[in-house]
Write a structure and sequence with these properties.
- This protein is α+β, with helices and mostly antiparallel strands and 252 residues long.
- It folds into 2 domains: 13-34 and 140-249, FAD/NAD(P)-binding domain (3-Layer(bba) Sandwich); 36-136, D-Amino Acid Oxidase, Chain A, domain 2 (2-Layer Sandwich).
- The protein is built from 7 helices and 10 strands.
- The strands form 3 sheets. It has a 6-stranded antiparallel β-sheet. The chain has a two-stranded antiparallel sheet with strand order 1-2.
- Strand 6 (69-76) and strand 7 (81-89) form a beta hairpin.
- Helix 4 (166-183) packs antiparallel against helix 5 (188-219).
- The protein is elongated and about 60 Å long.
- The chain starts with a strand and ends with a helix.
- The structure holds flavin-adenine dinucleotide (FAD).
- Flavin-adenine dinucleotide binds at residues 18-20, 24, 42, 44, 85, 135, 153-155, 161, 164-168, 170.
Length: 252
């Protein structure tokens, strides 16, 4: 039985803590410290392609890397908008929010000597349309589940977004959990343990790899296009991440 702050209660056979990076379920299960600020900050904006010169960037995942920062940009909404995220290191700023507006001129100043395409994208962001938030992490856990309670998504394995895998891992988790619950309907505690065993190593490795990708992005270059680097920016080594077919491995 679950008891909520508002006094309500709920009965169920299992509890899945899919309650994000500050997971209360995780804290109750593991008593580990809450998420910590990584010192990294994400600025996110979208620019209408009507405000940009045609084909300013290629229709792919574009990444510019430089000292202590990197920028990614790609088209969304059938190519009508260019979405970008600029990632910087700012030790003093810790507000976590999807709606905190950033000062565009601050962002432009941080990237003033970068690739001109980066500056163009920032310059064409409409006032008030650039948002900023702190990136948080928790350390990988050695176990997730306890009897009939488990974790899923950021509650289990929050990560920096440098491999674009946080939501992907949550979706994979959900698929694998559904697979085991369907296979073991009368023994949910067994299903939760099998789910954890299937997921914990992969997600822990990706948490670490995502952080390392940030270190790689921020360590070298001078604000240039990372695809021009000889090592492909490190992404070429990542088929174990992007080539993983969860549906084939855990058929429904
Ligand atoms: C800048 C940035 C860029 C990103 N880019 C990507 C990307 O390109 N690709 C990718 O795959 N991932 C990306 N991510 C990561 C992705 O956003 C997260 O990994 C994903 O949202 C995690 O999903 P979740 O459902 O586990 O947690 P959340 O999305 O945090 O959802 C948890 C939910 O639980 C609710 N909740 C929490 N506590 C309680 C409570 N006590 N009672 C009731 N409800 C509660 C919250 O309100 C929330 O709705 C990015 C993240 C950031 C910050």
């Amino acid at each position: 039985m679950l008891n909520f702050e508002d006094g309500s209660t709920l009965h169920g056979s299992i509890v899945i803590g899919a309650d994000g990076v500050h997971s209360r379920v995780r804290t109750l299960l593991h008593h580990d410290p809450d998420a910590r600020f990584t010192g990294h900050v994400a600025y996110r904006g979208m620019v209408s392609v009507d405000d940009l010169e045609p084909n300013l960037v290629e229709p792919k995942f574009n990444l510019w890397a430089g000292p202590s920062a990197h920028v990614v940009a790609y088209y969304v909404r059938r190519g009508e908008l260019l979405n970008y995220v600029a990632l910087t290191e700012e030790a003093g700023w810790k507000t976590e929010s999807w709606t905190t507006r950033a000062d565009k001129s601050d962002l432009a100043a941080q990237f003033q000597d970068w690739n001109p395409t980066v500056q163009t994208i920032i310059d064409h962001t409409q006032e008030g349309q650039c948002y900023k938030w702190a990136l948080l992490m928790r350390e990988p856990l050695s176990t997730w589940s306890s009897a009939r309670t488990t974790l899923l998504g950021d509650a289990a394995h929050p990560m920096v977004p440098y491999l674009a895998q946080g939501s992907v891992m949550a979706i994979e988790d959900a698929w694998v959990l559904a697979h085991y619950l369907a296979a073991h309907p009368t023994t949910p505690d067994f299903a939760l343990k099998a789910y954890e065993e299937a997921r914990i190593e992969r997600t822990g490795k990706i948490q670490i790899a995502a952080w390392e990708q940030g270190q790689l992005n921020h360590a070298v270059g001078r604000g240039g296009d990372i695809s021009e680097r000889g090592d492909g920016g490190g992404f070429s080594k990542s088929s174990w991440i992007y080539g993983y077919d969860v549906c084939a491995l855990y058929p429904d």
